[in-house]
Every structure is written in structure tokens, then in C-alpha cells.
Amino acid sequence: MAQCECFSEHFSKGHFLSGIDARVKLLVALALLLMVLSYKGIFFPMLVSCGAFMLCAKMRIPVKMLFVRMAQPLLIASVVLLLKFLFTGEDVMFSLNFMGMELSGHKDGLMEGIRITARILGGVSLVIALGFATPFIEFVAALSWLRVPRPFIEIMMYAYRYLFVLLEDAETIYSAQKNRLGYSGIRKGLNSFGILTGSLVLRGFEQSQKTADAMIQRGYTGDMPKLKNQPLKAAELAIAFIVVIIGGAAWMI
User: Fold this and answer.
1) Where in 81-206 does DSSP place strands (E)?
2) How many Å apart are CA 25 and CA 135, to the nearest integer?
3) 22-38 and 234-251 are packed helices; what angle lies between their axes, rounded to 10 degrees?
4) Separation between Cα atoms, residue 56 and residue 116, nearest integer Å
5) Cα–Cα distance, 101 to 67 (Å, whole number)
6) Residue 128's closest CA among 48, 20, 241, 16?
7) How far is it, in rounded angstroms, from Cα 89 to Cα 105?
8) 64-73, long-range: CB within 8 Å, 24+ apart, which pairs?
9) What is residue 151's predicted lDDT score, i.e. its pLDDT?
10) Helices (H) and strands (E) in the chain, counts
């Protein structure tokens, strides 16, 4: 099955960032991510988020794809903001009775929620831009170079490989259910979705057992060869250093 266009691999080539070493991009992203998570306000995370979206626009990433990637983090950020606003803080802005429950809006809770939301958006947008700019194999090689534990890298590689297999299975099951009017109503839709989810879980376990048996039969001992990397280029390191310095200056504002 060809890789679906909704995955980063489809967009990770043919732009100005595709020629830069994945290790350089990863180091810059990690440095900026640490700054985003440690920043106390909202200026720097939002600056990083705007920069990441500008990079995605420069790479010609479809707006719909960015929305799909940001949908879940935005939902989480909205829930955190709402919970902080209604249940955290001491400076009460208003109070109301909702279905017998007293709800109060807090100014300090709102500000804390906005700060957390900014960090979520800044960090997620940075990771999304890195994913669109870097092919998966190069990203894994960069993680190996950073001495990330091999079991973690192996799990990532197997998960990425069989993600598309499960996606194809999901599309087949969904099409069969839809043709049989399995989603004609809310109750039928929930029941069909439950069957779809259960089938994918069972197929995932079955596929994992088949993969383990196939690897053992081919002499797999639990140790994969190291991924090769080219020597780092001084020009790319210099540019990365400048970007981090500029980011650090903005972080100190």
C-alpha cells in the first residue's frame, strides 16, 4: 500500500529544509522545545508557534493537514484552559449556578491556563514542523546518533512500518461496514466503531506475533545494526547555533 498523504513522509522532501542534516534540525528543535517549556509567559511560545507555522507554509503544507495535526492538541489545550479558569485561582471574576453546581471564573486561573495553552501550542507546532521537514528514517538515524536506547528506536520503526498495514485494514473494515449501513444511525455507528476498534486491536496482536516469529526465523537476536550518518557540516552547525542564539535572546525578553 502506498503511504497515505496524511503522513509526514509525503511532505518531507523537495523543500529548503529537506537538505539539512536531520541531526541539526533535531538539536535545534530540542533546544527551542526546552525554551518553550521553561518560559514563564506566552510571548516566546507563541513566537515559536508562529515561526513553525511559517515554516510549514514555506514547505507548502496544506492548511487542512495542519488543522488535522493540531486538532487534538487544541482540544487538550482548550480543556486545560477551561479547567484552570473555572477551578483554579483566588481572584474571582464572576460566579454562576449551573445545574445546581456553583461555577466561578478566576482571573489568575485564566492567566495560568493561557500560559499552559501557549506552551502546548508552541511545543506541538515545533514538533509538527520537525515532522514535516524530516523523513522518518533520517529522524530515526538522528535519534540513534543521540544515543537514544535501541529498544525505543526499534519499537518506533516497527510501529511506523505496520501503521500503514493497520490503516489499510481499518479502511477495508470501514468500507465494508459503511456499505452495509453500519453508520446509518448514532447507535449503529457507535456499535460499528466498537467492532472496528476491537478488530484492529486483535489484528495488531496477531501481526506482532507474526513479525516476532518472522524476525526470529531470520536470525534476529534483539540487536539491530546502527544507522549510518554522514559527517556534520560546519555551515549547518553555524546556522543552527545562530538560530538557537536568536531563540535564547527572545527567550530572555
Assistant:
1) 92-98, 101-106
2) 11
3) 10
4) 23
5) 35
6) 48
7) 9
8) 65/6, 65/11, 66/128, 68/6, 69/124, 69/128, 70/121, 70/124, 70/125, 70/128, 73/120, 73/121, 73/124
9) 82
10) 8, 2
Strand, coil or helix: 12: coil
pLDDT in tens, 64-85: 888 888 998 999 999 999 999 9
The three three-digit cell numbers of residue 130, written as one number: 520537525
Give burial (CB, 10 Å; 0-12/13-18/19+) of 69.
buried
CB 112 within 8 A of CB 84: yes
Q: Identify the bridge partners of residue 101 per DSSP, sorted by sequence position.
A: 98
DSSP reduced 3-state for 72: helix
For residue 39, is pLDDT > 90?
yes
- What are residue 9's phi and psi, to 5 degrees? -55, -30
Q: How far apart are the first and last CA of the chain?
A: 49
Q: What is the Cα–Cα distance from 165 to 180, expressed in whole angstroms?
A: 23
C-beta of residue 141 within 8 angstroms of C-beta of residue 22:
yes
Confidence of residue 3 (pLDDT cuts 50, 70, 90): very low
The DSSP annotation for 188-246 comes to HHHHHHHHHHHHHHHHHHHHHHHHHHHHHHTT--S-PPPPP-PPPPHHHHHHHHHHHHH
To 10 degrees, the CA torsion angle through 205, 10, 225, 19?
A: -160
DSSP element (H, E) containing 68: helix 63-87
